[in-house]
Write a structure and sequence with these properties.
The structure is a single chain. By secondary structure, this protein is an alpha+beta fold. It has 2 domains: 218 residues, Alpha-Beta Complex (H-NOX domain), CATH 3.90.1520; 108 residues, Arc Repressor Mutant, subunit A (Orthogonal Bundle), CATH 1.10.10. It has 16 helices and 7 strands. The strands form 2 sheets. It has a 5-stranded mixed beta sheet. It has a two-stranded antiparallel ribbon with strand order 1-2. Strand 3 and strand 4 form a beta hairpin. The radius of gyration is 24 Å and the shape is elongated.
Amino acid sequence: MRTPTVCKEYLDNLLEYLEGQGLSSRQLQSVLRLNPLSHISEQGRVPLRLFEMTLDAGANLLGDPCLGAKAGTHCSRTPWGMVNYLGMSASNTREAVDAMQRFSRLLIDHGDMVLSEVNSSTACLSWQQPPRQQASVHVVEFFFANWYRVNKPMLDRGATRREVHFAHGAQGREAEMEALFEAPVSFGKKLNAVHFGRELLDQPTLYPHPGIHKSLEQAALIELSNLQFEDRLIKDVRDCIVSQLADGVPRLEDISAQLGIAPRTLQRRLNNTETSYKSLVDDARKERSLGLISRRELGLLEISAELGFSDQSAFQKAFKRWYGQAPGRYRMMLQSA
């Protein structure tokens, strides 16, 4: 399962904003019980959940329900880096917005930015997230406030109309949020989105350069592929575990030797994905169990051994935890279906 992340620059900007509001790192760490900066991966990424916790802690300590939007407005253009230059070198605004859609994961590796045309006069750029993995209100407002602030010159130049929509409730913050965005803000909408005049998409950019745009696009594709690096590691570890389960649960040292990675390095990289070796063993057993339980010729004792359990009762307890019913009853359900 993908561990959503944000770029390091977002965390840096957030911590700088909190410090500017008089919140010391000691106060923040006393609430979080950790140092956020110590959880930056080798790829310069931060777990989205940690970023979310930092925003929530800051909002509580400062008593500021609009912290996400304020910190996002304060955030510099730096996190947008390559995506910003892609937009600047695009031939028109539609191509610039397309770059934002394709490469927004370089900022927040979660969900997708989607451009749609509401009607003949209105376009909409929305952030669509997995239904069961919705980011917090502060994260959503941070991301939209930062996107809006970075792209406001473009909107001012080519869009006579714009409105910000949030799916969550206002909680009495309408006036303050409209002052931050300098635009109408509506709450309780279907999507988190920015609506603007469709005419903006046909506007030329200030510095179009097809050659530079193409080079930046290739570099952005490489950066995007690097985001999948840790996901591939998790898959490789899980595959190695599955291949060795019949001989008992392999040790982390055995897996690291098979992958050619030092045990401490493997452990650190798993920690960076908020995934433990123990949970990967459990996931591998769970995934493998369904294939085995569907094979009628295998008894439960044989399946237990194939999954590396020391006895059948341990397997039965684990299976019930995974799927809510005993393996024998689950098998009967499959057979009746």
